[in-house]
Each structure stands twice: as structure tokens, then as C-alpha cells.
Design brief:
By secondary structure, the protein is α/β, with parallel strands linked by helices. The protein is built from 9 helices and 7 strands; from the N terminus they run ββαβββαβααβααααα. It has a 7-stranded mixed β-sheet. The chain is elongated, with a radius of gyration of 22 Å. The structure holds zinc ion. The site of zinc ion has 4 residues, from loops.
Length: 258
């Protein structure tokens, strides 16, 4: 079993004095990256991702909150438990075997490491349907045996396109591989931007336009009049419809795909 470290940045954390049980969750969403979980939980006002681990559909296991920290995943039951989230909506979906297998290994490993046998579903301790009626709870909770573990660092690909790919993932527009290579999936993950947009994706567009010689002034992440004018100049130069809106055709040119 391999655990991928995420190196997420947390606000203040407190630490458990004991670990008596594991609590299983589903993401309640078909696609949900570690970064998305972290971002959402920060928005909730928490210290960051509330679960200790996420098991993704492809069988990859990510460490979210530090293992010894008190989680934020099951109200009233966080002080002595480790929370594991399974990507997917198991009210309706069927769990892929590779994910189930990874979940079993993680549960077996944690049981052995902490000397615990108690595994609960979120619904056992809170008024919730989590982890969903189709979640194979008995099979995963019953896992045991010795498991050897390796850990790996997240692949850190840097570059202009990687930065955009990562940001589109973080904001939930995509769940793509961050490889710094633009392609159709990168394009599909780029949101439409127009006057009034704000944030890191707008910032990326501004930086790109300035670098290409279409001056949009300071890179402030705010899609204002100057950014719109720069987009229109760019569209004119590229032979596109000049509407000042960054849609698929404009993105395609910015990404160098067409
Ligand atoms: Zn839950």
C-alpha cells in the first residue's frame, strides 16, 4: 500500500491523546480531489481537510490531515477517531474494486498500527446517510491482516500550464493530471471568464496576456476594463470573435492549442 503525502497547509491543529476507532465516509461527490476537500473545509472555517485520509476511485490513497491531529469529520466523535473519506457518491454509485481494495488495506493497516478493531460508518455516530447505502461497509470495515506501507511525495510539476491545471482542479472545474502539457482536458477545465471575474485563473490570464504583449495592467486577479480591452485586442489579433469574453476559443489560443 502506498500513501501519497499531500503537504497541505493547515491552520492550528490539536492532537488526539488516544485512537479508539476508525470512521468511514464517502465524499458524496463522484469526483473529489484532496485539494477540493481541503479548500471546502477551509471555507467551512475549519483548520483544513477534516479527514485524515482520502481513498480515490483509482485506488490511490492520500494523506490529508496529519494522522495524529484531531479531525473534523464526525461531530462529537473526532477526539478519538481517524476519519477516512472515499471519493464517490455511494448513495448511488458502485465502488470500483481497486478503490475497495485500497480502502481495505488502509483499514487493516490502521487497525494494526493503533491496535483497534472498531470501525464505524459516519451514520453510526451522526444523523447522516454517509457513507451511503451502496458503500460496501462490512467488507471494508472487516479488513485485517498485516500490510506494508510506502509513502510518496506528490508529483510536483511546475510551469505555467501546470499552475493553471492545478488551479482549475483546486476550484473544482476539473480533476486533471497536472503535467504542464495543455490538451483537450486542460481546455475543458478552463472556466469562462468575463468582466467581473476574480481570482487566480483571472490572474493567470492577465499574466499570459501581458507576456504576449497585450497589456492588461497590473496582475491583480480582477477582470476589469483593462483586462477586457486586452482580451479584445488579443481576440482581434487571433482572428476570433471580439467579445471580451474568455470562452473555449480564446482559451484554446491562450493555451497554444489552436
Ligand atoms: Zn461522512
Amino acid at each position: 500500500m502506498n500513501i501519497i503525502e499531500t503537504n497541505l497547509q493547515f491552520r492550528s491543529l490539536s492532537y488526539r491523546s488516544r485512537t479508539n476507532r476508525l470512521i468511514l465516509h464517502h465524499a458524496d461527490a463522484s469526483v473529489y480531489s484532496p485539494e477540493q476537500i481541503h479548500r471546502l473545509h477551509l471555507q467551512n472555517g475549519w483548520s483544513g481537510a477534516g479527514y485524515h485520509f482520502e481513498v480515490r476511485k483509482d485506488g490511490s490513497i492520500y494523506r490529508l490531515r496529519p494522522e495524529g491531529a484531531v479531525g473534523a469529520h464526525a461531530s462529537g466523535s473526532n477526539s478519538d477517531s481517524i476519519g477516512i473519506c472515499f471519493e464517490g457518491d455511494y448513495d448511488v454509485e458502485i465502488m470500483p474494486d481497486v478503490q475497495k481494495q485500497a480502502g481495505k488495506e488502509l483499514v487493516a493497516w490502521l487497525k494494526g498500527k493503533y491496535g483497534v478493531s472498531k470501525v464505524q460508518a459516519h451514520r453510526d455516530v451522526c444523523a447522516t446517510a454517509c457513507p451511503g447505502a451502496k458503500f460496501p461497509f462490512a467488507e471494508i470495515a472487516g479488513a485485517s491482516g498485516s500490510v506494508s506501507v510506502t509513502t510518496s511525495q506528490p508529483v510536483q510539476v511546475s510551469g505555467e500550464i501546470a499552475e493553471l491545471q492545478n488551479e482549475c482542479n483546486v476550484q473544482g472545474f476539473s480533476s486533471q493530471k497536472v503535467d504542464n502539457i495543455p490538451g483537450p482536458i486542460t481546455l475543458a477545465g478552463c472556466p469562462m471568464l468575463k468582466k467581473g471575474a476574480q481570482g487566480n485563473i483571472t490572474r493567470w490570464v492577465q499574466r499570459k496576456l501581458n507576456a504576449l504583449g497585450f497589456n492588461c495592467g497590473s496582475v491583480d486577479g480582477v477582470f476589469g476594463v483593462k483586462t477586457k480591452a486586452a482580451i479584445m485586442a488579443f481576440q482581434r489579433a487571433m482572428g476570433l470573435i471580439v467579445d471580451g469574453i474568455v470562452g473555449p476559443k480564446t482559451w484554446s489560443k491562450l493555451l497554444g492549442l489552436s
